[in-house]
Description:
It comes from Vagococcus allomyrinae. The protein is of the alpha/beta class. It has seven helices and four strands. Helix 5 (132-143) crosses helix 7 (160-168).
Amino acid sequence: MKVSYTIYPERLNALSGKYDSISLIPIQEISARFFLEFIKNNSDNDIFFNSISDTGLQVIQMLPALEYLKKSEKIIYIENQELFLSLDYQRVFDFIYGLAIGERMLLQIRTTEYMKMARANGVSPGRPSISPLVKVKIKHLHTIEKRSIREIALICGVSVGTAYKYAKKDTPSTSSLIC
């Protein structure tokens, strides 16, 4: 059975005659995880895409699913092969897979180099640390003053996620540290 999806509503009618099952997936729902699940759920079928852009992903985002397919000795079929001239489906898959691997390697190299440069310039890359005072203040505002997470985030100058994390954490209440 030939299965597919597209992110383009205008292509749906034209593609519906080509495949046994085709879905229109809103771009907001597309992610590397979605793609991997789609591939896994359809691994007994032939998975076709009219073009790479129909996946709604960058090649690097496709990598987990491509690795899964490679281990399973399966491929995805890309129909619109103008970019690939006269390559067969297997060679197109291998090319896309190799491109994704190359992108991952390049990303790793760039990240490593950025981290080295940042440290050399005295910058500590990553998330800023939260002082013990702010952690206790968040806990106090939540448990004692019964403030909302959003209010706490505004008062303490942190994100809502950070406020939530420390409001729910077991932190010793040290009221002497509260400003």
